[in-house]
Design goal:
heterodimer; A: about 450 residues; alpha/beta; D-Maltodextrin-Binding Protein, domain 2; 2 domains; four-stranded mixed sheet; 19 helices; about 10% strand; B: about 290 residues; mainly alpha; MetI-like fold; two-stranded antiparallel ribbon; 13 helices; about 70% helix; flat
Chain lengths: ~450, ~290
């Protein structure tokens, strides 16, 4: 009897739980392509349509876009629509969790790290037909940049990412004090570092936690400045990490670490610390992504140069790594009950994002009327180098690695920065993981 | 009155709690167990793989390493933090009222601080360049002992353990102190008449009568240490490499960083079993029967 009672109780609670967590199946859901029809059917006149959205609130720029552009102009554009925004700094994990639990919002800011899994699960809408039909795609200078490798468009963005590059920013005062000039070759960079080390100054600030700098740009930039073809071949999976050119690029990082080019304990230096080290004048240079320039420019009299070439055949600045992926941008839930409206919202968010960047004078793939001029001399200098480059290569981990390989790449690059771990060991440990990469399986 | 004490009556009273427990504890475990037998990328299930997720874990070196790290911290918590907390509580009981007030505030302060604050603070203390630890070592002429504490695979786990224990020693001490205050004064008066000193009274009266509190503190300390995650995330993000990951951190890494939810859930299932076993052992070993004087 006791067992029977417990069984009944458990059965009852399980049924309750299953009912609470169940979701409507596709076959049960009526076609709702016309937003107005939906509005009249469900809410009746005078009631607002409710949507959910997730955005990235990782930094001041993202917050500025959301608060001073998207939210500010919302009522004017969508007077009958109410949207519940959720901001997050951990976009990847939040979206994966929502996708797994069938709780994805109507629109969200997609990132490459989580997008593939969500697309494969059929939850991220292919926007290609929608934005072609309503001519939104005509706003782009280069619409090809929006297409994912399967021919679909899963996210729309202002396209600022392609104008972000890694760069080395340097403290002009320190360079003047020690009579240093901008290095034009890798050997000259090493000489500059040696001079600074001899004078007790830490040369270059980078991020070491989760191997951020090495994973995001340092390794790949060194490789492409040694041999652009090798970088392109690695990006398209034609070579692996055992390739001699790849090993040499990793060895350069190992050599610089052993030489003392990076701060002590660099493997545990996070993003804010690496910025602070430069801003407070504790390092003479900082190797970082170009989106951080305003803070650096405010803190120090700063100059910029690109990672120097280590090959006489390759001119410094000739080949640049560009940020981003076609999967980064505003995305729409393919199962949203207000799909057409959600597409309009994604387009609106993209426009607002573009207006914000254009007002700052940033270059964009998305065309805007009367964009402002770049006011920062530092950014003008970098953009001049950018515009003179001959080849732009996409970021490795965003465009050639699945989640598992990207995570392990971060782990091993962090280990490389911790010292006592050689480039050869890195290749021995990481290359089998790279060979298990599912990114290129189509 | 007696009719409420039948089996049916007991079940009736237990039903609301049982229902809540089933819905919020048992039910969420079921999909987790199912996913642990699947290949799952976080967004969708890619098919059943039998015991593969479990065999992969047991064959992995990292799985052993994360267990060593976790149980090292549990060991430190039980063998260092608990005796220190108890000793502090015993001393506190004999301290003046002013000292007690200051100590109680100071002891509780770390436990109410955010883990992020504590993690950042201790990461600062351990910083290789300007950290307090290395500065002290340099100041007292022991420069040869300075190192980059959080990027050295040999020192990183003890360093994180120290930060974790620092946070909870005070709280444990206050719990012990509350238990000591509940012991009737007459026992101590009788002991003094019999000539017992501080140590004798502590060993023969205080500690035996604190068994229930000790059991409670041992359980929360053990399970709290086993579930350590946030300190690692803030202080080292599991690095250098995978050197400072705990079991829970590895679960997070597998599931969310690598999108291998199947293996992540398998770690969770193993972890739940470990926690149940540890709880049973503690229950069996400490305070089986309440002590009556």
């Amino acid at each position: 009897m006791k067992k029977k009672n417990i069984c009944i109780t458990l059965m009852f609670s399980l049924v309750l739980g299953l009912c609470a967590c169940s979701q409507e199946s596709d076959s049960d859901r009526p076609e709702r392509s016309e937003t107005e029809v939906r509005k009249e059917e469900v809410f009746g006149e005078g009631e607002k349509i409710k949507l959910r959205g997730v955005y990235l609130n990782g930094d001041e720029v993202q917050n500025d876009i959301m608060d001073n552009y998207i939210k500010k102009n919302w009522t004017e554009r969508f007077p009958d629509v109410e949207i519940e925004w959720e901001g997050t700094g951990d976009l990847t994990n939040l979206l994966k969790t929502y996708s797994a639990t069938g709780d994805l919002p109507d629109i969200w800011y997609s990132d490459a790290a989580s997008a593939t899994a969500i697309i494969n699960a059929g939850n991220q809408l292919n926007l290609a037909d929608h934005i072609t039909e309503d001519h939104f795609i005509d706003h782009y200078v280069n619409p090809e940049a929006l297409y994912y490798s399967d021919g679909g468009i899963y996210a729309v963005s202002s396209g600022i990412d392609a104008f972000y590059t890694p760069a080395i920013y340097y403290n002009k005062k320190i360079f003047e004090q020690y009579e240093l000039t901008e290095p034009e070759t890798y050997d000259e960079l090493i000489q500059v570092c040696q001079t600074l080390i001899d004078d007790g100054i830490t040369p270059i600030s980078i991020v070491g936690t989760t191997g951020w700098s090495v994973r995001n740009f340092l390794f790949f930039t060194i490789l492409m400045n040694d041999d652009p073809k090798a970088a392109q071949a690695l990006l398209s999976n034609e070579i692996d990490f055992s390739d001699e050119r790849v090993v040499n690029a990793l060895k350069k990082i190992e050599d610089m670490l052993n030489m003392g080019c990076f701060p002590e304990g660099v493997a545990n230096i996070d993003f804010s610390t690496h910025m602070a080290l430069y801003a407070e004048g504790k390092t003479a240079m900082i190797a970082t992504m170009s989106w951080g320039y305003p803070e650096l420019e405010t803190a120090q009299d700063t100059g910029v140069f690109m990672w120097p070439s280590s090959n006489p055949q390759v001119k410094t600045g000739q080949v640049l790594q560009i940020w981003g992926s076609s999967l980064n941008g505003w995305a729409v839930n393919s199962r949203s009950e207000n799909r057409d409206l959600a597409v309009q919202v994604a387009e609106y968010c993209t426009e607002q994002e573009a207006f914000r960047h254009a007002a700052q004078g940033s270059s964009l793939n998305f065309k805007t009327e009367n964009p402002a001029e770049v006011t920062s001399e530092l950014e003008k200098e970098r953009m001049a180098i950018y515009n003179n480059a001959e080849q732009y290569i996409k970021t490795l981990h965003l465009n050639a690695m699945d989640s598992a390989v990207a995570a392990e790449f971060a782990t091993y690059t962090n280990l490389l920065l911790a010292g006592d771990y050689t480039a050869e060991q890195f290749v021995k440990d990481f290359n089998p993981i790279w060979k298990e990469n599912t990114w290129f399986e189509k | 009155m007696n009719k409420f004490y039948t089996k049916k009556g007991k079940l009736l009273f237990a039903l609301p709690g049982l229902l809540l427990f089933s819905v919020f504890v048992i039910y969420p475990m079921i999909p987790q167990i199912l996913i642990s037998f699947q290949s799952h990328n976080g967004a969708e299930a890619l098919g059943y793989v039998g015991w593969n997720n479990y065999t992969n874990l047991f064959q992995s070196n990292v799985f052993g390493k994360v267990h060593r790290n976790t149980y090292f911290i549990v060991g430190c918590s039980l063998l260092i933090a608990l005796p220190v907390s108890l000793l502090l509580a015993l001393l506190l009981e004999r301290a003046s009222a002013g000292v007690r007030t200051v100590f109680k505030f100071g002891a509780l302060f770390p436990s109410v601080l955010s883990v992020t604050v504590i993690g950042k603070m201790w990461a600062g203390i351990y910083d290789a360049d300007w950290g307090m630890l290395n500065s002290i070592l340099r100041g007292i002429g022991m420069e040869q002992l300075t190192r980059s504490w959080l990027t050295n695979a040999d020192t990183v786990v003890p360093c994180i353990a120290a930060a974790f224990l620092w946070q909870y020693i005070g709280l444990n001490c206050i719990l012990f102190y509350a238990g000591i205050k509940a012991i009737p004064e007459q026992y101590y008066e009788a002991a003094i008449i019999d000539g017992a000193g501080f140590w004798r009274a502590s060993i023969c009266i205080t500690i035996p009568l604190l068994q229930d509190i000790i059991k409670y503190v041992v359980i929360i300390s053990t399970l709290g240490s086993m579930g350590m995650y946030a300190h690692i995330l803030v202080m080292t993000a599991g690095g250098p490499g995978d050197a400072s990951r705990s079991v829970l951190y590895q679960m997070y890494y597998k599931a969310f960083s690598m999108s291998q939810f199947g293996e992540g859930c398998a770690i969770a299932v193993i972890f739940i079993i470990e926690c149940i076993i540890v709880s049973i052992i503690i229950n069996k070993c400490i305070a089986k029967e309440p002590i009556q004087y």
